[in-house]
Amino acid sequence: MSDFHNRSQTSARRSDYVWQYEYYDDEEPVSFEGLKAHRYSIVIGFWVGLAVFVIFMFFVLTLLTKTGAPHQENPDSVEKRHRPGSCLVDIDGHQDENDKAFSRPLLAGSRSYFNFYINEEDKAGVHQQLTGLIEQSKSDRECTFLSHFNIPNFVNLDHSSTLGEDDLLYEPSAILERQSKSHDKDYPAC
Amino acid sequence: MNDSIMNHSDCPEVVVPNPVFFTIGAVSFAENVLVVVAIIWNRKLHLPMYCFICSLAAFHTIASLTKTWENLMIVFANVGHLEKKGSSETTLDDVIDSLLCMSFLGSFFSILAIAVDRYITIFHALRYHNIMTMQRTGAVLGVIWTVCGGLAVLLIWFFHFKLIMIIFVMLFFICLVIICFLYVYMFMLARSHARKIAALRWGSNMRGALTVTILFGTFVVCWAPFFFHLVIIMMCPTNPYCECYRSLFQLHVVLLMSHALFDPAIYAFRIAELRHTLRKMLFCSDWKLCS
């Protein structure tokens, strides 16, 4: 009699199942008879799916690096490259980026932007060139204010393996910080 | 006889020892408090991007404090000092749950705000300073904190409605999709720029892909199990396979807490200025010399 009462109570509870935050009180006994697959099959399936998703995303990203991004050059993207925020120098082919970045004067018109690769050995020589280039550039204002914020860390791409901490791709160089200290007053504090 | 059969489960709940919770809580609290203090202390870090990182660290601080508090209460309840079903304990439990919910929602929105800020930095760099002023940043943070607080209270008060849980899960998936899209798009632009530069090296190419994978992968791996748990509870509360998944709840909560542990390493500690500030704060006893 009491068993029947318990069972009816259990089925009544099951029909209006209320999820409580007290997860330590498991009042819903579940029957484990007649399971066809392994008990933890959902758990295993979930984690395998998650791992596959993350690894797939990683491979898609590395494939993009091999074959090139679908974001190809077009008239719209040329406009984007006008922005010195990108701060990349336009270099042809297979020349050494350190030499070309700083020997080529910045163009006043289109496609004028910096590449902030700085080698430790070149820092001194580059300093004067950079100063000159900054002053020449139409967009030096934008370039110097860019030193105030870290463009996302993840774009610490190329040459980071060899240059290590000296690779200041997209991060404010010490030189530019000196240049931009005068702009510090322009920016309101938090 | 029947009772013992009914109470026995082939998937017993996996119990994580309390010291693990306390350790993770303490370490993540320490990390995030340091990040918040460093960003507030150093005036050079008073910029929109760092404000969002500070907000993320603040939410994680609240989360680790609240979770540690909850663990303490559970320990006391198990020992017998607290009554599990008492009215004051239930109210306190609701408050803790609201705070936890608020901090979890807040960390989603902060991570989303960081991704949007980075997106604007890359794609609207010239107008960045006009778009992302400190006033707007303050307003955005105010909205995030208010919405999270309000949502958290609503979610906990009305948690017995399935709709609320569905909304919570949908919110997570929408945030996930937006963050994924933003980062992949930024990555694609970075690659298209880098392609124009000569001598791309394979090792360094991998690093960008790895960074985005880590950023996004950590978020997914830490959060997805918990949300899948919510989905399972809604969809199959009596299914034995689902029961086995639900028995791992404490492991999933450990993963949630470890998200607060990993986030400073992924976002905050990668900023050179912040590392420099932390070094000054922690290792420099004489501040006059160090400034």
Question: What features would you describe in this structure?
Answer:
Chain A: It is a single-pass membrane protein. Chain A: The chain crosses the membrane at residues 40-64. The complex is a heterodimer of chains A (190) and B (291). Chain A has 8 helices and no strands. Chain A starts with a helix and ends in a 10-residue tail after the last helix. Helix content of chain A is 46%, strand content 0%. Chain B is an all-alpha fold and 291 residues long. The longest helix of chain B has 37 residues, at 87-123. Mean pLDDT of chain B is 83; it is low at 1-6. At the A-B interface, helix 1, helix 2, helix 6 and helix 7 of A face helix 1, helix 3, helix 4, helix 6 and helix 7 of B.
Biggest interface: A-B, 82 and 93 residues
Order of helices and strands of chain B: HHHHHHHHHHHH
Helix content of chain A: 40-55%
- What is the beta-strand fraction of chain B? under 5%
**What oligomeric state do the depicted chains represent?**
heterodimer
User: Using DSSP, what is the number of strands of chain B?
Assistant: 0
- Structure annotation, total helices of chain B: 12
| Shape field of chain A | elongated
